[in-house]
Automatic annotation (TrEMBL):
It comes from the Bacteria. This is 1-aminocyclopropane-1-carboxylate deaminase. Residues 11-290 form the Tryptophan synthase beta chain-like PALP domain. Its cofactor is pyridoxal 5'-phosphate. Coiled coil: none annotated. SUPFAM superfamilies: Tryptophan synthase beta subunit-like PLP-dependent enzymes. PANTHER family: 1-AMINOCYCLOPROPANE-1-CARBOXYLATE DEAMINASE-RELATED (PTHR43780:SF2). GO terms for molecular function: D-cysteine desulfhydrase activity. InterPro entries: ACCD_DCysDesulf, TrpB-like_PALP, TrpB-like_PALP_sf. The keyword S-adenosyl-L-methionine does not apply. Pfam families: PALP. The active site is at S70. It comes from Salinimicrobium sediminis.
Length: 312
């Protein structure tokens, strides 16, 4: 194995940033997107102890799962490159493997992962649904050897341990902590390290009510709630209003949001603040979980739908 460097011991501490006062509510941002240029936001937190575990088990390969624009795929590919581990991405969408050149040309996420050295295994949507079955994982082991498996979205016990490091001691001054929710790993870590008086609000980026039980499985407290009405139609769905909100946010505060997660969460926070959901003088800390690598891929999709681009 090549020399490994532990990028995770060099996590900078990024100060919280005041964004706006809306209807007597003050909104601050924790810029986890600034942790690392390639392993961004919550994916940095989620990979930290998994990579350490893979190295201590002397595995040379990380294998994980994701969609074609997945932040987790991009982050795992980069983290593998930096840590001296090979990476295999099992990607949803058999058709993407038919002409790899074309796929790489069209898809900035997979192009980035490819340049980091990730090897792809493209599978059908129905096979993809098997991704947690023992037989399917056994097959992957026969094909790819003794890899360390990181689940889709990176969520497992070690990922949650990493996400417990998002909140710092000084953050106890906030009344509300908010974050976007995909698999629920990030919010579970945040809940675990929150103070009793704090309310944790999660904004699911997708439809469905399976998330609540996932979070209950990983977190020990009950000071949290999911706000289900800001998914904009489902995972990776966007509309003109969301894009305009994100572009205004960028020009007002100089911060980019991503269209799949943080844009929707921030839209939700502003919307709730304006309609009087929070008590006066509430102090909110919204977690910017990163994901900015997904903007260019989304802009390709928006072009085809005749929607305006997300400005960068
Ligand atoms: C993956 C991701 C999330 C969702 O995190 P979970 O731990 O899966 O809930 C949120 N925000 C961004 C930017 C992400 O990339």
């Amino acid at each position: 194995m090549s020399q490994s460097v532990n990028l995770f011991t060099h996590a900078p501490i990024v100060p919280n940033r005041f964004i706006a006062e809306v209807n007597g509510i003050s909104i601050h941002l924790k810029r986890e997107d600034l942790l690392h240029p390639e392993v961004s936001g919550n994916k940095f937190r989620k990979l930290k102890y998994n990579i350490a575990e893979a190295i201590s088990q002397k595995r040379e390969i990380l294998l994980t799962f994701g969609g074609a624009y997945s932040n987790h795929i991009a982050a795992t590919a980069a983290a593998g490159k930096i840590s001296g581990l090979k990476t295999i991405g099992v990607i949803r969408g058999e058709e993407l493997g038919k002409d790899l050149e074309k796929t790489l040309q069209e898809n900035p996420t997979l192009r980035f992962a490819h340049v980091c050295g990730m090897r792809f295994h493209f599978i059908s949507r129905s096979d993809y649904r098997q991704k947690t079955s023992e037989a399917f994982i056994e097959e992957l082991h026969e094909k790819f050897g003794n890899f360390y498996l990181v689940p889709e979205g990176g969520t497992n016990e070690l990922a949650i341990k990493g996400c417990e490091e998002i909140l710092l001691q000084g953050d106890a001054e906030f009344d509300v902590i908010s974050c976007a929710v995909g698999t629920g790993g990030t919010i579970s870590g945040i809940i675990n390290s929150s103070a009793e008086h704090q309310q944790i609000l999660g904004f699911p980026a997708l439809k469905g009510d399976f998330l609540k039980s996932e979070i209950e499985r990983f977190s020990k407290k009950s000071n949290w709630e999911l706000i289900p009405n800001y998914h904009f139609g489902g995972y990776a769905k966007v509309d003109r209003e969301l894009i305009e909100f994100m572009n205004d946010f960028r020009s007002n505060y100089g911060v980019l949001l991503d269209p799949v997660y943080t844009g929707k969460m921030m839209y939700g926070i502003f919307h709730l603040a304006r309609k009087g959901y929070f008590l006066k003088n509430t102090r909110i800390l919204a977690i910017h979980t990163g994901g900015l690598q997904g903007i260019s891929g989304m802009n390709e999709v928006l072009k085809m739908k005749n929607l305006p681009p997300i400005l960068t």
